[in-house]
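In keeping with the milestone schedule agreed at the kick-off meeting, the structural modelling team has produced records for the first pair of proteins. Each record is given below as a sequence line and a structure-token line. The laboratory manager (R.T.) confirmed that both were archived under the project's standard naming scheme.
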Amino acid sequence: MIQFKNLSQEIPYLIFKDKYNDSIKANQSQIEAISIASYSLKKKEVNARFVNLKFVNNKEFIFFSNYKSPKSQDFNSHSQITALIYWNSINMQIRIKAKIKPTSREYNLAYFAQRDKKKNALAISSDQSSQIASYDDVYKNYDKSLKTDCLTECPKYWGGYSFTPYYFEFWEGHELRLNKRDVYEMKSSKWQHTILQP
């Protein structure tokens, strides 16, 4: 589930919340799954992966990650991202373009302290995306963390990322591919609405 806090009353945010509510009513599974595409300046390549969108706080979309991960390195070198959500229960695709930045250390500490300790053990024990000898070692590291680490103290290498959209596209699938595409793009500090052909 995505938690909404002090949601912006600007039109694209209200549409996003309405579509979210429609998906909830339609029993959408994995509703918090969002694909984040980033660009690596070092490797000159694009990467994409799914993360769990945890919060929409006013205009900020927030998820959490290991700050040493490949995606974090991408964000550090190139802060523009594209995010993509697909809620198949209502045949709705939402494309977002945004600039991304880390959340504050204070924010990370407060959130980590109230998270489930088993989730924290994984965050502490995993050197995300690094090679490991076997999958059994993942369990060993996790089990060791459960038994020996302080599971309420957020490590410096873990925290949130926040992105504030400047572009939304709401793609609504229809029969015969007569799809509806509404775009809201921030221009001159105002949301400009356009409609795209299918």
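The second protein of the pair:
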Amino acid sequence: MDAVLSILEYENLERIWIERVEQTVREGRQKIDRTVFELHIVRTTENGAAYEDTIEHLSESEREVTGLIFALAGYLVHDLHESVPFILLDSLEAIDSARIAELVEYFADYAEHLVVALLPEDVQALDDDYNRITSI
């Protein structure tokens, strides 16, 4: 996550991570311990002060990128790249063209086959080295 936030230059996002915690919840008349995951987002202000934020305050672009990176992490951690060497990225319209190009380059390092569905104006930001399908 840190590498992608740096590459994409989300300047006021300092850090994003998921923490696995045990939480006691009531189930019927019993209290049981459950594992839950908490999303932590740390932002910085212009004067350098850090504060924890919530996902509701992220821009649509920031939410999309966060979801994609956690999906990539799960893909790699669970060794899916060994049995499914394919990633498809779609509906990236919330992310600007320059950041899409950076994401494609980053994801290309982790998947043998990467397919990205893009709007024509977003395709122009990609290197010419990528194969393109313009009609089916």
